[in-house]
Design a protein that fits this description.
The protein is an all-alpha fold and 278 residues long. It contains 9 helices and no strands.
Length: 278
Amino acid sequence: MSRTTKYDEDHSFVSPVVKYLLFFFNVIFWIIALVLISIGIYSRIVKHETAFASLTIDPALLLMIVGIMMFFITFCGCVGSLRENICLLQTFCICLTVIFLLQLLAGVLGFVFSDRARGKVTDMVNSAIKHYRDDLDLQNLIDYGQKQFNCCGGTSYMDWSQNMYFNCSKENPSRERCSVPYSCCLLTKDEGIINTMCGQGMQNFDYQRAGEFINTNGCIDKVVNWIHSNLFLLGGIALGLAIPQLFGILLSQVLITQIQDQIKLQNYNLLHRSDPWS
């Protein structure tokens, strides 16, 4: 046997660096997938039926769906790279490509149909306001958003009349009638203790009078303005999410090509080994 033939038989096109880099890349996201699934299951078991279900998508269910999808995709990537299985690697690559294109499409559609998307968000916020007192986690989420963005309600502080406890109707026996949550209130830096009753009766005031005590602007406009003023930050986050996907697609394609070349080499060696005239 010639030195060239021996070299051809021992030579491998599959790079261990590419192979194990793709493997550990998938292991990291596989662990993240397990964490997401665990959090989603824990939330569903502990919370049972939650007011979050009034939103378009239950966050616990969303976590489980995303976690299961990530688990399946990263499982294909882990096993495919470790076993050098072209079928699993192609499944991994196709799934990542489809997800990347769907994200890109969602971004384009959200920009083109921004008015319709705004309407959907408004409906979600109004639904959350109606269930404000029904779930503590939802209540804390709304309060956090209103304090962070210095806003109140969806479009204005009057949106809180949609809640049965803050409703201004004469039939409402609640002590919070015509009020708004304390998270709408204007707070000074030297104020040590928050007055949770500071929003009492604010819906009875007009915008100018109420503006002396609470934030009267809605959260939707505030969030939209924040997005417009932080486009570079959001673009960086989107790029940060896209880079791992593109990295995974590139690595899987490189490994698939190397495995295919290795198979061709093996077939070539088998063919010439069985040829008595070679």
